[in-house]
From TrEMBL:
This is Pregnancy-associated plasma protein-A. Pfam families: Peptidase_M43 (PF05572). Residues 330-464 form the Peptidase M43 pregnancy-associated plasma-A domain. Keywords: Disulfide bond, Hydrolase, Metal-binding, Metalloprotease, Protease, Signal, Zinc.
Length: 498
C-alpha cells in the first residue's frame, strides 16, 4: 500500500515536470514568433519613468470613438527630464486592457477611463480620461476673479487708480473660455456689478472685495488694497554735482558733454520725478510721483561759485572704469565732494554696467566708501532715475538666482525672478507664473520704466528725511548747513548695485 502510494506520488511529479517543460517550450515558441518589440532608442537606458501628457483629458458625449493625443515625457533616476532622439513605441492600456496605438476611447456614454502606457518594463503613471454629458458652450468647471495682466499687483491709490480686472472662466476641459465665448457672469467690485472690467476707478481706501458670480455660484472673494495718497506736497530739492570724467576731450563732445546736455538730462529727470512727464505707455495703476528734484549746485567745496553750475570737469588718464573693480570704487570715494552738501553723480565710461549706485549708509559714522551714483556718457534719463532710486534706498523689485522672491520687501511692487521670467511683448511673468505689465523704474528691461509705487516713494522720501550723508532738504537758492564731513579710510567691502 505504501509503495503504491509512493509510485503514484512520483508519477504525478514526473507528469507535472513534463507538462511544465511543454508549457515553457510553448511560451518560448510564442515569444519568439509573437509581437516583436521595436528597438528602444539611444539613451533609453537612462529612463526610469515616463508620463503621458494628454492634450485633452475630458470629452463631451458623442457618437463613435475618439483618438487620444498623448505626448510622452521621460525622466531619469533623479527626476530629471530626458530627451530622446525619437520616441519608442508605447503599448497603451485602457482600464487594464491592451489598446491600440494611438489609443481610442468610446464617447457614447459618461465614463471615466484609466489609461497608462508601457515601454518594455517601464509603466507610466495612470491618467484619468473622462467622458461627461454637458453642454460645452455653457458648462463651467471653475471660475475666479483676478486683477488683469495690465494691473496685476492688488494695490491702489484711492481716487487716483484705474484698475483692470479679469473674470477667468474655465470650460469642461479646464481651459479658459475666450473673451467672446464666456458664459454670462457678473463681476462684483465693492458690492456693485461692473459694466466694464477695464479702467475701473478706485474711489475709496481700505480693503475692497471683488468676485465673480455665475448663476447662483460665487467665486472666491479677492481683495484690492486701496490706500489714501499721503501728503506729498512738500517738494524735496537736492543739490547735485555731475563729475564729468574725461581724458582731455573738448567740451561739447560725447566724451566731455556740454553743460546744455547735462541741464537737459536734469530737466527730463525732474519732470519725471514730479509727474509732469506723460508717457505714451500707460503708467502703473498704483503709480505715485515722488515729488523730488535735483538742482545744480551753485557753489564749489572751496566756497566759490562754480563756473558751470552743477558740473565739475575732472581730467583722468584713464578712459574707462571697470564695474566690480575696487579701484573704481576707491576712485569715486577719493573724488566725491562732501555728500552732506552734494548728491555726487559721476559721468564716466564704465565697463560692465550701464550705471550703478551705492545704497544709503546705515549710520552717521565716518563715511568710508562712496555714496552717490554713476551714469555713463549716454546720459540716459531712465538710467539716471533708476540709479537715483538706488541712491535713495530702493532695491530691485525682482530676485535673481534659484528662488522667486519679493526683491524689495514692498507689497505694492510686482515680485518676479529676473533670471527665469518669461516675457511676452511688454509683459513679464511674476512669482505666481502670471503675466503682468512691468512699469517700475527699478525693473530691468523689458519694462516701460515710468512708475514708482507708494511704498517706493515713501522709502525715498524717508531716506531724505532721516538718511545720513545726504544734503538736507534745502531751498534751490540756498545751501545746506551740515556738520563738517570727515573722509574715512576706504572700505572696499561695500559694493554698489547696478
Ligand atoms: Zn538697478
Amino acid at each position: 500500500m505504501i509503495r503504491q502510494l509512493d509510485f503514484f506520488f512520483y508519477f504525478r511529479k514526473i507528469q507535472k515536470i513534463i507538462f511544465g517543460v511543454f508549457i515553457s517550450l510553448g511560451l518560448l515558441f510564442l515569444n519568439s514568433c509573437g509581437e516583436k518589440e521595436d528597438p528602444l532608442p539611444e539613451g533609453f537606458d537612462f529612463v526610469t519613468d515616463f508620463e503621458l501628457i494628454p492634450y485633452d483629458s475630458v470629452f463631451v458625449i458623442w457618437q463613435g470613438t475618439h483618438e487620444l493625443n498623448l505626448t510622452p515625457k521621460f525622466f531619469g533616476a533623479f527626476g530629471d527630464e530626458i530627451t530622446l532622439e525619437f520616441n519608442p513605441s508605447i503599448q497603451y492600456f485602457i482600464d487594464g486592457k491592451k489598446s491600440s496605438n494611438p489609443p481610442r476611447i468610446p464617447l457614447h456614454q459618461e465614463k471615466e477611463f484609466e489609461l497608462y502606457g508601457k515601454i518594455g518594463r517601464i509603466k507610466s503613471k495612470t491618467l484619468k480620461i473622462r467622458v461627461i454629458d454637458v453642454d460645452p458652450k455653457t458648462y463651467v468647471s471653475k471660475f475666479k476673479a483676478s486683477m488683469a495682466d495690465s494691473t496685476k499687483a492688488p494695490y491702489a491709490i484711492s481716487g487716483r487708480s484705474f484698475v483692470d480686472f479679469n473674470a477667468s472662466i474655465y470650460d469642461y476641459r479646464g481651459k479658459e473660455f475666450p473673451e467672446n465665448e464666456k458664459p454670462d457672469y457678473k463681476f462684483f467690485f465693492d458690492g456693485k456689478v461692473l459694466e466694464s472690467l477695464h479702467r475701473v476707478p478706485v474711489l475709496r481706501s481700505g480693503e475692497i472685495p471683488f468676485w465673480v458670480e455665475i448663476g447662483d455660484k460665487k467665486s472666491e472673494v479677492e481683495i484690492l488694497f486701496s490706500r489714501e495718497l499721503p501728503d506729498l506736497s512738500r517738494k524735496y530739492s537736492l543739490p547735485i554735482i555731475f563729475h564729468i570724467i574725461h581724458s582731455g576731450q573738448e567740451k561739447g563732445t560725447t566724451e566731455n558733454p556740454s553743460q546744455e546736455k547735462i541741464i537737459e538730462l536734469l530737466h527730463e529727470t525732474n519732470e519725471w520725478l514730479q509727474g509732469r512727464k506723460s508717457s505714451q505707455l500707460r503708467k502703473g495703476h498704483n503709480q505715485v510721483d515722488p515729488n523730488l528734484e535735483f538742482f545744480p549746485a551753485l557753489i564749489g567745496p572751496d566756497g566759490f561759485p562754480l563756473p558751470e553750475p552743477g558740473i565739475n570737469r575732472v581730467f583722468s588718464e584713464k578712459n574707462s572704469y571697470l564695474y566690480g573693480d575696487e579701484k573704481t570704487y576707491k576712485y569715486l570715494f577719493d573724488n566725491m565732494w562732501d555728500p552732506n552738501n552734494y548728491v555726487n553723480v559721476f559721468v564716466m565710461n564704465v565697463d560692465g554696467a550701464g550705471g550703478f549706485a551705492f545704497y544709503p549708509p546705515l549710520s552717521d559714522e565716518k563715511l568710508s566708501r562712496f555714496y552717490g551714483f554713476v551714469i555713463t556718457k549716454r546720459l540716459n534719463t531712465f538710467t539716471m532715475i533708476h540709479e537715483a532710486g538706488h541712491f535713495l534706498g530702493l532695491p530691485h523689485p525682482f530676485s535673481v538666482g534659484k528662488y522667486c522672491l519679493n526683491g524689495d520687501g514692498f507689497m505694492d511692487t510686482d515680485s518676479y525672478n529676473d533670471d527665469t521670467k518669461k516675457t511676452k511683448s511688454l509683459f513679464k511673468t511674476n512669482c505666481d507664473g502670471e503675466y503682468f505689465y512691468p512699469t517700475n523704474v527699478m525693473d530691468y528691461f523689458p519694462s516701460v520704466h515710468n512708475s514708482f509705487t507708494l511704498d517706493q516713494v515713501n522709502k525715498m522720501r524717508s531716506t531724505i528725511d532721516i538718511g545720513y550723508f545726504l544734503p538736507t532738504n534745502v531751498n534751490p537758492n540756498g545751501r545746506s548747513q551740515s556738520k563738517p564731513w570727515v573722509r574715512g579710510v576706504f572700505d572696499p567691502g561695500v559694493k554698489p548695485i547696478e
